[in-house]
Amino acid sequence: ARLMSEEAINNIPRLARQLRQQVNDGFFLTESPAALASAYFIRPEAAFEAMDYLRLVQEASLRHEEFMWNLPGEFRFITVQDSAVLQPVPPGLWFNAQQISFAELAKNDQAWKRDFKKVEDYWVGHLGGKPHMGKLWGFAETPKGTIEPF
Questions:
Q1: CA–CA gap between residue 89 and residue 147 (Å, rounded)
Q2: Which of 143, 74, 149 minimizes the C-alpha distance to 115?
Q3: In what order do the strands lie in the sheet with 35-42?
Q4: pLDDT in tens, 54-89
Q5: How far is it, in rounded angstroms, from Cα 149 to Cα 38?
Q6: Is the pTM of this model over 0.85?
Q7: d(CA 51, CA 97)
């Protein structure tokens, strides 16, 4: 473990330099499965209810054959200031809840989209959450009957 950790740390400058030259970016994540993520700003007093609902949906997926949640939800408390151009919530303390999962473990894209929509519908419709516009959001059924994000 010590050798692997040392080699990983020692290779950071090389990886950053290589990717900066290739794609004008210093990030060095080179191989990773596609991660799905959506986040919502929720009133802090609804924090427990938000994460408890995500837990219920994730536990129910253990019985599904098409999609099983494979990453835990994430959250943080954040202080929003009145400084963003596209600011979905007013300044103040907010609870930021995230649902995340790997796409490759779903049988098809509709399987994960149905569950993401289920959580979004509850967080937005029942708890009054507002979506983080830089992530997946706006899940809706199309005229063809498929679920798609905005």
A1: 26
A2: 149
A3: 74-80, 92-102, 35-42, 130-131
A4: 999 999 998 888 999 988 899 999 999 988 777 889
A5: 10
A6: no
A7: 7
Token pair for residue 16? 């950053």
Share of the chain above pLDDT 90, in %: 61
* Long-range contacts at 144-148 (CB < 8 A, ≥ 24 apart): 146/110, 146/113, 147/110, 147/113, 147/114, 147/117, 148/113
Half-sphere exposure of 27 (CA within 13 A, CB side): 5
Please state at what angle helix 109-120 crosses helix 47-60, rounded to 10 degrees.
Answer: 150
pLDDT classification of 15: cutoffs 50, 70, 90: confident
Torsion of CA 122, 127, 133, 138, to 10 degrees: 30
Q: Is the pLDDT of residue 6 over 60?
A: yes
DSSP-derived secondary structure for the chain? -HHHHHHHHHHHHHHHHHHHHHHS------S---EEEEEEEE-GGGHHHHHHHHHHHHHHGGG-SS----S--EEEEEEE-TT-SS-SS-SEEEEEEEEEEEGGGSSSHHHHHHHHHHHHIIIIIIT--EE-TTSS---EE-TTS-EE--
